[in-house]
Design a protein that fits this description.
Elements lengths: L1 E3 L2 E7 L2 E2 L3 E6 L4 E8 L4 E8 L6 E7 L2 E8 L9 E4 L1 E3 L4 E9 L2 E2 L15 E15 L12 E2 L8 E10 L5 E19 H6 L34 H23 L30 E5 L12 E2 L10 E6 L2 E3 L8
Parallel strand pairs: 5-16, 12-14
Antiparallel strand pairs: 1-2, 2-3, 2-6, 4-5, 6-9, 6-11, 7-8, 7-13, 10-11, 11-15, 13-16, 17-18, 17-19, 19-20
Length: 334
């Protein structure tokens, strides 16, 4: 609802006021411009309320540049009213055709390139005036020029138009002469499909559907998160979680009973370096074996251990240190 000073205006569809977006107010001109969503095939009506008025006023309504009708609000009449509603365009004193939104027809016919298109196409304009009401006159009707097909290159971000619906009978209407004194308010509603208003950032985007049904939970609570994809019911899920918790507890107890193996200290081996002409120290349990000059191969039969006090070994030597061979004729495991 547009509200300016003591005057309010709105557009109804299906008995409900349409939402208004991008309202701009020019205070110096008492003018308001805003956007409303339109839907092809829907009837609409125009409503104006002037509260606590002390002067005669009149409301004039224009659609797509066509004048529809004017209605008087006279606080001095026997039946004063502060609200008027316009549902259509009169075709006689007792009939009128309702207003409705419709799709704008486009054509590639080049013959339509020069056709005039109203600069007010896609607009509903309301003017509310301070007037002086005169005498009654014979009833007159106006003509309504519906917007026909226009060339596709003439389209100016407009995809809807207004058209008149079927004729219907209404209460008898009368007309009077009026003299305009001052314009109190001008409101321009620019109507477009809702998706167009959203695409241009005039109306907010459609609400995003929530991707999850999980409830919000304070961060300081311990929570087991069950995703929406799980098909198990809650009791089954709880039973499984309890079983898993018990299994982890049992595993923790059994792990405490495992006795750790004693650590075996590894003794660092010493590397022995010797010269064949030096005395061999047998403190390291060395065995010195003499290989006879006539023998080429070292075997059990031709091995002859020497005494512990021997200071040298004749012939070639084979020296073993705890099974670790040294020299070209080394033997292990003897």
């Amino acid at each position: 609802m547009v509200k300016h000073k003591s005057i309010s205006t709105w557009i109804n569809v299906d008995g409900e006021a349409l939402a208004e977006y991008g309202e701009e107010v020019v205070h110096a001109e008492d003018k308001v411009v805003c956007w409303i969503p339109s839907e092809a095939g829907k009837e609409f009506s125009v409503h104006v309320r002037h509260e606590n008025s002390t002067v005669q006023t009149a409301t004039y309504v224009y659609v797509d540049g066509n004048f529809l009708k004017g209605l008087i609000m006279d606080p001095w009449s026997r039946t004063p009213k502060d609200t008027v509603s316009i549902h259509g365009m009169p075709t006689s004193a007792m009939t009128e055709r309702n207003l409705m939104f419709a799709g704008l027809q486009l054509s590639d016919d080049d013959g339509l390139l020069g056709a005039a298109v109203s600069a007010e196409l896609g607009e509903i304009k309301i003017e509310h005036w301070h007037v002086m009401v005169g005498e009654r006159v014979a009833y007159r009707t106006n003509t309504y020029a519906e917007t026909g097909p226009i060339h596709e290159r003439s389209k100016k971000a407009v995809s809807h138009r207004a058209q008149l619906g079927p004729q219907k009978v209404v209460a008898t209407q009368t007309q009077r002469n009026v003299t305009k004194v001052a314009c109190l308010l001008t409101v321009i509603y620019r109507y477009r499909p809702l998706d167009m208003l959203q695409a241009n950032g005039i109306a907010p985007p459609p609400a995003q559907a929530s991707s999850s049904r999980k409830r919000n939970i304070p961060l300081d609570e311990d929570v087991i998160n069950i995703s929406d994809e799980e098909s198990e019911d809650e009791p089954q899920r709880i039973a499984k979680l309890e079983a898993e918790l018990q299994r982890l507890r049992n595993g923790s107890k059994s792990s405490k009973k495992i006795k750790s193996e004693p650590v075996v200290k590894k003794e660092k081996r010493q590397k022995i370096v010797f010269d064949p002409n030096d005395v061999i120290d047998l403190t390291y349990r060395l065995q010195c074996i003499a290989l006879l000059p006539s023998e080429k191969t070292l075997t059990k039969s031709n091995c002859k251990p020497l005494g512990s006090t021997t200071t040298s070994c004749p012939g070639k030597l084979a020296v073993g240190l705890l099974g670790v061979g040294a020299g070209a004729g080394a033997a292990t495991g003897i």
